[in-house]
Amino acid sequence: MASIYPPQDLQSIAALFPHVDIDVISSIVRHELPGVEIYKLDSRRILESTWNIVEVSVEDSTVSLRAAPFAIETYPTLDSLLVPLNAYFSILCVEGLSKGQSALLPCHFFRYSSHLVKIAAQYEWKAVLSYHLASFTRRCKEMRKGDYAGWGRVDMDLMEEFLVPNQKKRPYGTVFSASSACQSWELIYP
Asked: Which residues does 19 contact at the CB level (< 8 Å), separation at least 6?
């Protein structure tokens, strides 16, 4: 039987992403998945023990919770963030396009991913991750109102708060100039 495109329900979307739990997909399409939890979309890392915050001991019949990892532990590198973020964007595209969002929807996500790559080259990773998590929270609020275009915009206030004070040092102790910082704000646009 031919599959219907675009998918019309969560089960159809879940069939496209078999490694992602349907409850996670549901929270994505409702724009309720916290930014720190997109690791759940990374098929490379789903079975890693770092994601297991419930510890069960068969020997002494105990169940205990351990602290969830810090964001920097969960996303130590750009690719550890981009791989699940791209799956997140794919789910949003499939769902959004099936609900009548503009055909330009993927462009907003591509611009944001490109922006992350560019700022990760210029700013300290921990600052980039903080910027991303703040931006992600802002975008989810906007998407709950039907506005997906924010992914294609640069959050100047968040850049000034998180990134500008945390520029990477260049060789020989120099830092990026103010003009290159200004350019990074514009890099998202072609």
From this structure: 43, 46
Two structure tokens written together for 175: 């830092």
At 181 the pLDDT is 47
**CA neighbor of 95 nearest in space, from 3, 15, 13, 16:** 13
* Distance in angstroms (rounded) separating the CA atoms of residues 57 and 52: 13
How many angstroms separate the CA atoms of 173 and 49, rounded? 39
Which pLDDT does position 169 carry in this prediction? 87
Judged on CB neighbours under 10 Å (0-12, 13-18, 19+), 96 is buried
What's the rounded Cα separation, in Å, for the pair 95 and 106? 12
Whether the per-residue pLDDT at 64 is higher than 50: the answer is: no
